[in-house]
Records
---
Amino acid sequence: MSIQPVPAFEPPYVMAVFSNTRTDDDSGYPETLARMKEIVGTNPGYLGYESARTPGGLGITVAYFRDHASLTAWREDLEHQAAMKQGRSDWYESHTLHVATVERSHGFVRNG
């Protein structure tokens, strides 16, 4: 299976860019991350996400939503709110969230 970026969608749509640095505490993080992926996948406006971490420890996750209402529903999910609270207390040294409306989008996939 090859790794592919999230495909381009018909604009406008919304993206949330979550940049972070982690603490050394990993307790419960993998399980919570798996649960968050499960929950956000039930949001009808959720389009997908991409995530990477640099060797220096900077993590960036970009999540895509059809509209601001879908992103708001994700932000207001009670389990997500609990995970955000635990992230601030246990897992993250720092984080920043940027939200933007995508006005233009296109992609390319090499055939063969």
---
Amino acid sequence: MSSLLIPIQMRFGDIDSYGHVNNVTMLQYLEDARVRLMARPLPAGAAAGVAEGATFRTLLGDLMTVIGRQEVEYTEQLLYRAEPVSVRVWVSSVGGSSFVLDYAVQEEDGSRVYAVAQTVVVVIDRATGRPVRLDESQRSLLEHWSDAPTRFARRPAPAEA
């Protein structure tokens, strides 16, 4: 698996009145992992045509990213604790002007998974707000972090026509 494992330090304020991590806070954990993946320097020889130390952020230049869609499936309650929880993040799909990040909010060793999630990230032009096609270096860097898509256990089957 080509993924990045990000430790997230929980705060007591992350807990809601039910005693578990609030659903909005879970999205913040995903955001933290997403931002750190996009700022992660690439090791030498990791992606064809991409310089060592490049990050997705640097390859974007003046372009920006926006979130097109997010989906979270909560698999187990995450209760407050002093030890960090880990977020595993990877790229599951690369499209024309967008890509999909998948996540597992889990114990560091993967023994328990509290949530799985997906985010569609769209690259846009700051001035026009319109989507911009990913170039070859951006694609190559994203593919360095690629792996199979998350399987949502509780996703309903599509309705038959």
---
Amino acid sequence: MTDTRPLPVLTEPDTAEFWTACGEHRLTYGTGPDGEVVFFPRRVEGGQTRESAGRGVVYTFTVVRRHGHPFFRAHAPYVVAYVDLDEGFRMLAEVDADPDAVRVGMRVEIGWEDHGETAVPVFRPADTVAT
């Protein structure tokens, strides 16, 4: 067992571009040929990759208090939320905040947890992010 965060496979064809961008602290999403937002990272014929400003609101969340994996067990309690990004897509991510302070509708901004070649997007309350 390991006490480090499980990380994505960086060579997986559908998500490699997304995780490479995360390593550069850029949150990307795709659009279809008609401009409609397409997310979670997947390739779309005729679409474009765009960069998000990384700001949004908590749509819903849960507090994880117990986990079987050693990294997450040591990390608990922590918040996992669906975040509605201002560009029109929703993603599942951790919110780095006191679990008792997180609320539906709370403004959040992207932060990064660096891991070698990539980084994991982790949201934080908007008023606590350094500019």
